Fold these 4 entries.
Entry 1:
Amino acid sequence: MESDPDTLLGLAMDHRRDGRLDDAGRLYRTVLTSRPNDPQALLGLGVIHLRRNELDRALPLLESAARLEGGADSARPMYARALVMAGQFERADSLLSERPQPPPEIELLLRQRWGFALMAESKVALAEIQLQRVVQLSPDVADAHADLAHAQLLQGKHLEAERTLMRALALDPGHADAMVNLGTALRALERVAEAEAAYRKALSLKPDHAAAQRNVGALLTAGERHAEALALSEDWLIRQHSVAAAMTRGAALQGLGRYDEAMACFSETATSVEDPYEPLTGVGLAQAALGQYREALSTLDRAVALRPTASLGRYRRAPVRLMTGDFEGGWRDYEARWQEEAFLLWSRGPAPRALKDRFDTQVTVEGLRNRRVLLVGEQGVGDQVMFASMIPDLAGVARDVVCVCDERLVRLFSGSMPNVTFLPPAGTPFSLAGFDTILAMGSLGRLFRNGTDRFGGAAFLRAPPESLARWAARLGPARGRRIGLSWRGGTPGTRRAERSVALIDMAPLMAVAGTEFVSLQHGDPRKEVRAVNEALGARVKVFDPREIEDFEDLAGLIGNLDAVVSVQNTNVHLSGALGAGCLALLPNVPEWRYMAEGTTMPWYQSVQLFRQAERGAWAPVIKAVVDVLSAGGGR
């Protein structure tokens, strides 16, 4: 009979196989009216709801079918599949574990989705366990290896990720995503040339691969190959306009000092895409480089509002806030630097990439009380001097402080702050387990310099008497005021051309009556100094660079001078830290440490600032310094 439940079940199964799901569903429901616990009807109706992604209706039906003896064998895997699709991974795992050999396709689905879900929750170590099992189930599938490598990369397991990615690429040499991630692993291992080759290979496989474009652009920018990045990005844009290509072009223009063009590039991109977050951060960066600080803050605020938890907008907003006096907000944003690959590529100092996830960026001053703290230097040596001004604050709170800093600073810091242990980064035998808190030097600002009233600006370093005496003998009797000179600062990647002045252009300084000059310039400027001395009839003293390579020796030399005249570089920081008079020559748009305006900087009482009124106009700045020195100032 047509109304017989078994007959109806047979018809329903035929309808389901033929794709007539509505007819099958009606028949299954009819059967359940007379036989509410019929396992086949429960299973069949549950499968229909599952195929329609109606999980809230499928789950109770499949659960009931799985519990009933007659349908257990076929219903349990289907119920497990539904649990996986609903994100109930632990219940699915428990259900599958009841069978000695769970269906491989269901377990594979479980491990994949569970792994991806854990990745989305930033539970990367747990995700790796699931993705390892995916590889065991699918050893010949390139995607399985590539997904596992991604989890390894996120944990900083770069060597393991490299090996896993090489297996993925052996299975599928055309896997562009795996090639990009291989580049990222190699870059983290500081094999930069190999990383670039991997990124370029990915672009040969997929010319519009956004991540490959971004990463090639980032490497070229970090390597100060701005012209090459510009040409490459313009080739990309001819083929297809993309945010990645436009951002690379804007960054290249920025690196070349073509700030108006950079801003136009970023602005055009911001108005042409659905999500303007990234190009808005570029607009803000260009505005800041043009000295348009208020506009930059407004633009970067807009970007951060679009993605409050993303790091790029806050990373780029931090220096603008700091240089305009918003120290509390600026230091808060400054912590985003550790999430930005651009910072990790650019940053110098002993802070290794492997430590970035160990730094405590949320600790409070009270949380440091009586704690054992490892402080790690970051960025350039000048930044480490500046940040070191807060080490006495930290030492006054913590029980013990060990600071790993540039080896050239160890002697000077140790003699100036004897209650802190200073170690060089190379060959330092210590265990991270011996510390309660690990801090990056730049994070001290958030703790101890949250307002202009928190900067004392007093000297905190001192040259030892023996160094002072040695340099006094080395210099001999003075024939007037002794002035230290430093005319070059930064690298091409930190706007060296804008920050530096030719020594020959300092001729008006050398003509000041009753003065003699000593080179403090980093590197080996002896040939340059000799040429200027011959051209001007000047007598700028210059020493073997090895004599002032260590900062204790350099501090002893500065301690024998009446004043220092320097462009923005490490000599400004060291002079201020020693309390030595320093006249600093600043470009129209200085680094954030020098603030957006004013004749002083909060870090050091003894530093006087002389700013360009117009970009590149050094002559008026030098004249102002000449006037101060001629009047006997600068001490």
Entry 2:
Amino acid sequence: MSSTDQASFDLVDQPWIPVRMRDGATTELSLVEVVTRAHEVATLSGDLPTQDLALVRLLLAILHRAWDGPGDLDEWERLWRAERLPTGPVVDYLDRHRDRFDLLHPETPFFQVAELRTGKGETSELSKLIADVPNGRPFFTTRLGGELSLSYAEAARWVVHCQSYDPSGIKSGAVGDDRVKGGRGYPIGTGWCGRLGGVLPEGGTLRETLLLNLIPRRADTPSRTHADDLPVWERSPQGPTVRDDPEPSGPVDLYTWQARRVRLVADGGRVRRVLISNGDRLEPQNRHRLEPHSLWRRSKAQEKQRRNNDTVYMPTPHDPKRAIWRGLEALLPGAITADQRAEAADRLTAGVLDWVAELTEEGVLRSDFGVRVRTIGMTYDPKGSITEEVTDDALGLRSELLRRGAQHLVGLTRECVKASEKAAYALGTLALNLAQAAGKAPPPKSGMPDDGDLNRAIELAYAELDGPFREWLSGLGPDTDPVTAEAGWHRTANDVVWRLGQELHERAPDVAWAGRTVNDRLLTAAHAADRFAKALRQALPQARAAERAAASA
């Protein structure tokens, strides 16, 4: 650090967390301010969606430790009924650990190792730290021109993000780390959150969001009562070596898991360089009892490898090409029946959604309380060494839909998603049939039809159904009649997909009306239209049922 640099950047009092206020204004707040004013804040507004989740988890770790809880449902309900978060204990807690929240502290810099170095004293450009600058693909950067540098506030956010989402791959070999070979630290996997299918329930304010994710200590999860479930700032300062206890002691430990050893290099009042080395490796198997912010799936392949008859659950990453509502069933606690809640369940929803379900069942949350379920994730190349895409999607739901006893609503949404998929496929088949009627030949040597037209039309259908389905879903609540709601969605989906089909039909070339012989049968645009109409009726039968009932009345 040069002599012109300030000696401290205290995250407790210095603004660094980006937020959007309820009036729409954006600003940065310190740790004390973000808790004190959480009822005035609409949401976090990080540089990337993944930064939002990483920062929420940091705040949750602080609240759990500052309040030593909440201990049970009653204590949580008192927090929920209050207009503001009780900030006195938080201020006192942060003051006790202030040195560990100083980004530039000479001995214990926040989320860093003060004396981290390589054998040759190298450091790296900040493209290693900033996730919107994939290595080798600088044209994706949002920071074009000149040498990259960061304000201290920006650097603090990216250090938190790095510990959560840093790609795997070869890292700088730190002196003192006995895993280093030839000056290199070989891959140990991505940051912990990079392995998750992140799920974040949000309320109308940051206060509500934090509380919805603040799960009390529970008797059925002994790890939550462990006195050693500590965040990194309550542990002994970490050097370049791995920590003595390689297993996480609870969710708070996971929220601040140090997957990397980091040292920022400041000069001239800004951060200019960084050193990132391997930190603590963490395997993902069976962390579902500690990790509440992810979906999980049973892995029979992992079970075969273990050969000890143990059930193995793995985090379920999000598919960035698939809208959240198309995988809605995986999010709903009520989609897991009593039988499925056994150890051998094929999938598990996120613990935070189970918690919202419990709050609704206990009457703490109104059944029509609006919850925004947000899915956040980062995808990497097959080796996990390059950031490829960030996933961020959200659905507005009433909490009734998350209640385990809401089987009627869960079944309704499941069937309507399936009906939508069938309707989208009907449109795709129409596009394929029209292309074949116009004489479009299959790819050389394959003998199979080109499914490019089919897939493009299916994706078009999903894109057009997306907004209407989200709006329909947000209206489902305790007073919903499933029969009426299903008929309503069938009519809406039918109108959308039928219109798209008409547009495809009208654009068909003249040659398609004469048709071609396909599989020894004549196929024309008229044939394609008839098949489409039949397929759509089968996909969305309730759309026609209402019309028939009205006609017979």
Entry 3:
Amino acid sequence: MVSTHFARALSWNLLLAGAACAAAAGADEYYQVRGGIPNSQYYFKVDTVGNQYLFFIGNSVLAGTGLKDANLRYSAQMVAGFKKYFPKAGMIETRQMQPGGSWFGLYRCSRGQPVYGEVICSGHLAILDFTAADRNVDIAQVKTSLEGLVRQVTIYRATHSTILLYTLTPEMLQAYKAGQTPEYVAVSEQIAAHYNIPSLNLARYAADKIIAGEISFEAFSADGINPTDAGARIYAEGIAKFIDALMAAYPVPEKPQARVLPQPLFPDTNDNGRIVAYEDPQVKTSGTWKPGQASPIGPFRHVLVSDEVGAALTLRFTGSEIGIIDVVDKDSADYAYSVDGAAAQPLAAPKDVTGPTMRPVSLAKGLDRNAEHELVLKLASPGTARLGGFLLNGSVADAFAGKRTLERIDAIYAAMDPIAYTPPAGRFANIPKAMAKLRDGGELRMVLLGDSIMGNTSASSFELLLMRNYPKCKITKIASLRSSTGCKYYQDENRVEDYVLKHNPDLLLIGGISNGGDAEAVRSVIKQVRVRKPDTEVLLLTPVFGSVQCEHIQKYTREIDTTTSNFRYNMQKVAAEETCAFFDMTGPWWAYIQDSGKTYGWFMGDAVHANQRGCQIIGRLLEIWFRE
């Protein structure tokens, strides 16, 4: 029996497909609207926090290389085109320069990225242009990698919209002059049609101008790939017409609809690309390896380092392709690798690098995707290895499969150095009722108010640790959060009703990194809550995690600086004046990271948020703070 959700989504896709035929029928040959981007139109209209991102993935053309006017790059022109229809939308243009073409894109756009350090697909609209990067790639590889990437974007989030875009290369111009469709475009259009997504062939639009004699190819591009300002203006003309057609094709829907992926167009396509962290429990080491080391380049958050010849890594996996992504430099070691016990193959360190460079490389492809395989990777020469992770089109066994949440977080923490922290005496003086429930039993309703960092606090599952220590108490935890939001927002327009009071808290925890240094806004929220529910007890938490530019990291002191006005000190004063409990989590949190021998990124899920290890720092600190 087909589920209601699936049926609705399928009906929506069929409706869009039917409408797309009509929309595309009158379109200029250089673009196809097909199913359009109605979900993105919805997100443009509602413009909620976290939905403003448009992520472009491309190469030097996307970067605007060679342009005198950077605003002429095609990504800026596309944003301007959308702005014409949604002038109030806070669109954020993110551009990802793509080495390795669509092949690496398949891995780069996967969920997670525990080592690599990116969250590319966090917006709602993906514009993909691999034309220049894929120009020398075998077309059979393009078929499966580009299709896998398109599928990967939808797998990441089913409401994402995708546009395929093609820019001009000398080979494509030659094909158009011969009256032929470039093979790359033909394959890409097959994929776009199969998935009912729009495509914009700027290569065709520019080639027609060149063939008609309106501009020479030399005037269009000085190097054959990157347009001049004159060439970029031609692209801009084509973009404007495309967006007008795109916006006219479909109305803004009442809500976004999940896309249902059809079966792959090409039988060899595998859409299970991912970057497996080198610290995954399934990666076995021999010899000396140092995890969590600072990378000389981004976007790696940390790398695994060894300079011991013969040191080895072994990974068992299921999938069709395995590779690595590492940092190579002039001092890099050579590797030797073997898959499924075959004779070892060399992987030499490049000799022509002039500085640290990211290297994504495939080691074996065309493997039986349903079979288990084993990769052994060894250092084969003097030098230094700096591994970021494994490129896997497949899966590895989940080391935590079957474990309950408490067992899982205990396993994560067991692999970390234990936290040594002694909380101050008298810290429970202003939360006597909460402590009584913990000791004596009953339900304790905790509301966590703040931003995504308070989301990390919730993700630590600290309440399970507390209930283990206080087995008579049942803790009900409510995470009442809004991304990038602090008490400056919650204090206005009676928002405390929806975010706090309706949850009937016994204990309110206020924290995060988004209070803008405004302790008085925190005070305002406390006062508003207590006017309506005076028995609510409050615990104030100082900031943890965030980017390295955050004040609590830039101006960190292990103890609160009481000689100047700063947020930690001001929060402490608000806590005392409003009879709240107070936990300066900043102090022991950053002290632990500083003393760990690991780089900050070892504890990070992205540039701002904690990973599982980072969440356990938060959770275990709260466990210690609440322990009598």
Entry 4:
Amino acid sequence: MTNKQIANAFDELANLMELHEEDDFRIRSYRNAYLNLRKLDRPLAEMSDAEIKAIKGVGPAIAGKIRELVTNGQMATLEKYREKTPPGVVEMLEVNGFGPKKVRVVWQEMGIETVGELWYACNENRLIEYKGFGLKTQEDLKNKLEYFLKSRDKIHLDAAEEEADFIGAWLVGKLPGARVAPVGELRRRCPVIEKLEILVGYAGDLSPALDGATLTLEHQKDTTWQVRLENNTSAFIHRCEPSEFGSKMFKHTGSPAFVETFAKAHPGIDFKNLEHEEQVFEKAGQPYVAPELRETTLPPSPAKGRHEELIEDHDLKGILHVHTTWSDGLHSLREMCEHVRSLGYAYIGITDHSQAAFYANGLKPARVLAQWEEIDRLNEELAPFRIFKGIESDILTDGSLDYEEDVLRRFDFVIASVHSNLKMSKEKATSRILSAIENPHTTILGHPTGRLLLSREGYPLDWEKVFEACSRHHVAIELNANPYRLDLDWTLIPEAVRHGIPISINPDAHSKDGVHDVRYGVMVARKGALTAAHCLNALDAAGFEQKIRR
């Protein structure tokens, strides 16, 4: 099991124990274990018992439970609480913002045991009769439940990629000589994957690869098998003859709308039995269209479909939006800088949290000055690698930025982000964001809608007003590359570019591993037809410095 999976097991255990009103001390211990274990660099599976016990907040009892998970993939205590809790009640705990105390009320006092029943109770105004549930709380919960139900069985882009890699490796190992590739939404780099699809070019039977343990067959129709993995992820495997692999890649990659539009645009051409996908476009007499752009209909112009026109990983020259141990990051300033430099980037933009983010150890002005001194020393030592002094400044409720004028003006650049009071009407959210954009110290608008994919919808904005303001005040917009955000949404990128607004692809990294999330940002930036010419951190260090000064 990964550290993340082990940490999540303790989080679930704490929630279940709180649901059953168990000992507060043990619950806090398990919550602390969750927080500490998820931050570890080294895999717990590689540690000795003594090393595990030396971890902060891990005593002998928790160490024993970690060893259980590493060895058996299960924890007896967690299984005990799962068995005594209806599955639907366990699922309620996954609803964002609906904690164990409120779950206990609807379960024990109202007899509700599934998410669907709970939504229906909200719809009938039954919750307002119970302590802790007013009309406003009930309406908020109903909206969260609807979002949860819509999101169920969907997975994030990074998780889908990981699952596809596992399935691909398994199939290649079981089917010698097979050609295996992801298709569908994953190949189109959709931020959320509703249907995970794999194409297999193989002349024989797929049955040897479906052993009932690793890949369990659920349904088969013609040449498509629906399977389920041990972790409950569902996937669809399409089989074709090796000689038609290219034709099927094209068919299963594009959305139905794209494939249908393409066929209508080229009547009378037979695209069957092509071994390589490029041959489809050659026969059609048009340039290759990148998979990311095959979402709805044909791209607006052939140039936007060309692979070489779209931004690529190597186009990024610097990494912006990075947190360190100065606020809530896992690694020190030096460690983050040296890691980014080792990856071949020319510069880094350090943006720890501002003082209003007290929950994230945000920097008071005195600590800002101390951090700048450390940055100055590292700039001398690591040159020509460049460290820019930035901040992720909270956009306060009235739209102003955290810190006074004399502090803000001394940063090299400022990422302005909303982190609190996210429940806003379109008018309120737009007014708040516009005030931040109009602030002369704002360089980049960070994760502009505040969304968390499959967990929290973003606040609504009047995008025409936002784009006009960013263009007028020379403010870039962040494409937050964290796979749980991917915010700005790819559908808005073309309009931002038309307004002349640079897009900054930022990892929002809180650790060295987090830096690598920029690849997911590049994926969805390509989906929005972004080129390097319109990407802020595709500039070299001198170009970036000139841009932010201007």
